[in-house]
Amino acid sequence: MTDIVIIGAGPVGLACGIEAARSNLRATVIDKGTIVNSLVGYPTHMEFFSTAELLEIGGHPFPTLSTKPTRPEALKYYRQVAVAESLNLQLYERVQHVEGSDNNFTVVTTKGTHLCRKVIVATGFFDIPNPLDVPGEELPKVTHYYHEPYAYAGQRVAIIGAKNSAAKAALECHHYGAKVTLIHRGDSLSEKIKYWIRPDIQNRIKEGSIVAHFNTQIQSIKPNELILNGPEGMFSLSNDFVIAMTGYRPDYAFLETLGITISDDPFRTPGHHPETFETNRPGLYMAGTVCGGLRTSRWFIENGRFHATQIIHHISTGRVEQLKLEQRNWKTAE
């Protein structure tokens, strides 16, 4: 039996593993994919909005060529940290369910079982896109994940959304020769678009090189066109590809399988203590972005990495008290 099983090998999951080791707790980090699997799915040449020091874990400096790290730099950094800390990683192993109770859990995976005292869920939210819920969304020309612009050169591309990811995708595709249309159900670009991106996307829309349809929703997706409903009614738009930057959500089915209650607030927040991050199931914790539910902008790597310290402190304190209780019981038995 190990002390902790951490589900998710993203930056926050790795941070939990590091803090556990530094508190003399044995931890196993399990992920259905590779190290920082979500970052692998990010745009190929993505640049983080945060500076390097805000993405550091375990006190390891994050070397970068510029102020803001790139995706390749982040992939290299987190892998090197995991190696330097000798974390016990079990990769490409999907957790199916967790049996047992506090101090006696059995984590069942596609490759076997892991016995542990505590469980930390750090699964993020990047795996399940928010659906458009329209006919034709299943067509191969539709994606919820943008990687790079080269394949869209000379193509008629619809970008759904108006936040940072949508604006970046629209600009990159435009600069590589795509005929870009931005479609958003709101009446303007998001106020959350970063200040160095906003002028570029605004100017491209103003000059007409990127066409924008606000207060507009997709009604259906067809092989060569989109049916839209805008301020002036229904209309069609010739189209080759759809990049739906509609955001993502936690895997609620998995969380419910673990016995975590989901609140009925608008954000469907998974139940957890605000300071210890222990869920309604004793001994099972959550860390990182998954804690925010649908409010995916509440926790990032920058602030979610500190959950590790709080969780491991709570586990360590409880472990000490448990050992004292066991010692008292042994003395009583003698």
Q: Helix and strand layout, with pairings?
A:
Elements: E1 2-7, H1 11-22, E2 27-30, H2 37-40, H3 71-84, E3 88-90, E4 95-101, E5 104-109, E6 112-121, E7 128-129, E8 142-143, E9 156-160, H4 164-175, E10 179-183, H5 198-207, E11 211-213, E12 217-222, E13 225-230, E14 233-238, E15 241-244, E16 248-249, H6 252-257, E17 284-286, H7 301-304, H8 307-333
Parallel strand pairs: 1-2, 1-6, 2-3, 6-17, 8-15, 9-10, 9-15, 10-11
Antiparallel strand pairs: 4-5, 5-6, 7-16, 12-13, 13-14
Q: Helix fraction?
A: 25-40%
Shape call:
elongated
Q: Give the C-alpha Rg.
A: 23 Å
Mean pLDDT over the full residue set = 94
Distance between the termini: 26 Å
Largest sheet: 7 strands, mixed
Content-based structural category: alpha/beta
**Total count of helical runs of at least 4 residues:** 8
Oligomer: single chain
User: What is the strand content?
Assistant: 15-25%
pLDDT under 50 segments (min length 5)? Answer: none
The succession of helices and strands, N to C, reads EHEHHEEEEEEEHEHEEEEEEHEHH
> Could you give the count of β-strands?
17
Question: Please, could you describe this protein's structure?
Answer:
It is a single chain. With 334 residues, this protein is α/β, with parallel strands linked by helices. It is 27% helix and 24% strand. It is built from 8 helices and 17 strands. The protein has helices at residues 11-22, 37-40, 71-84, 164-175, 198-207, 252-257, 301-304, 307-333; strands at 2-7, 27-30, 88-90, 95-101, 104-109, 112-121, 128-129, 142-143, 156-160, 179-183, 211-213, 217-222, 225-230, 233-238, 241-244, 248-249, 284-286. The strands form 4 sheets. Strands 1, 2, 3, 4, 5, 6 and 17 form a 7-stranded mixed β-sheet that branches. Helix 1 (11-22) runs parallel beside helix 8 and helix 4 packs across helix 5. The longest helix is centred in the C-terminal third of the chain and has 27 residues, at 307-333. The mean pLDDT is 94.
